[in-house]
């Protein structure tokens, strides 16, 4: 059984996602975590409230030893693309249907990314722009 860490202090998110995942996965819920233990988890589900409050710097997502799914509350498309570019494997809204939420988790655990189809171009464009900027700096 795969281990999933749910990083939130929001009771609604905690209850919904813990119930959603508990049948198929080993769930650990916490509101703070030491980064050096993240390798123990197949997936870390991070409440976007941490990113918004700067308690969690999204730029470190790429450095984490595990996949990351960000849960947001009606985040703008710009915010969603931003965390995907920062290295998150996916984004889901707090109120996502059970079917979609489970599909997102399963897809990410299988190595896929989870985003809306129309965001793919925006994420790729952002990554290409970042690469171009780095190349120009050299």
Give an overview in words.
By secondary structure, the protein is an alpha/beta fold. It has five helices and five strands; from the N terminus they run βαββαβαβαα. Strands 2-1-3-4-5 form a five-stranded parallel β-sheet, with helices on both faces. Helix 2 links the parallel strand 3 (43-47) and strand 4. It is globular and about 50 Å long. The termini are far apart. The mean pLDDT is 85.
**Termini distance?**
45 Å
Overall body shape:
globular
| Helix and strand sequence | EHEEHEHEHH
Strand order of the largest sheet: 2-1-3-4-5
Q: Taking Cα atoms only, what radius of gyration do you get, to the nearest Å?
A: 15 Å
Identify the notable features of this structure and list them briefly:
globular, 5 strands, single chain, 138 residues, alpha/beta, 5-stranded parallel sheet
Describe the structure concisely.
The protein contains 5 helices and 5 strands; from the N terminus they run βαββαβαβαα. With 138 residues, it is α/β, with parallel strands linked by helices. The protein has a 5-stranded parallel sheet, sandwiched between helices.
Topology:
Layout: E1 3-7, H1 11-21, E2 26-30, E3 43-47, H2 48-52, E4 67-72, H3 77-85, E5 90-93, H4 98-109, H5 119-137
Parallel strand pairs: 1-2, 1-3, 3-4, 4-5
Helix pairs in contact: 3-5
């Amino acid at each position: 059984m795969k281990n999933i860490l749910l990083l939130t202090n929001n009771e609604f998110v905690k209850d919904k996602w813990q119930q959603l995942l508990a049948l198929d996965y080993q769930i650990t819920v916490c509101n703070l975590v030491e980064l050096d233990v993240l390798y123990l988890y197949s997936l870390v589900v991070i409440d976007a409230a941490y990113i918004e409050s700067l308690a969690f710097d999204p730029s470190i997502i790429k450095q984490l030893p595990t996949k990351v799914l960000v849960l947001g509350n009606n985040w703008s498309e710009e915010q969603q693309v931003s965390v995907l570019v920062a290295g998150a494997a996916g984004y889901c809204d707090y109120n996502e249907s059970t079917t979609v939420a489970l599909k997102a988790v399963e897809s990410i655990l299988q190595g896929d990314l989870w985003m809306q189809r129309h965001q793919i171009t925006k994420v790729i464009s952002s990554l290409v722009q970042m690469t171009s900027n780095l190349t120009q700096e050299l």
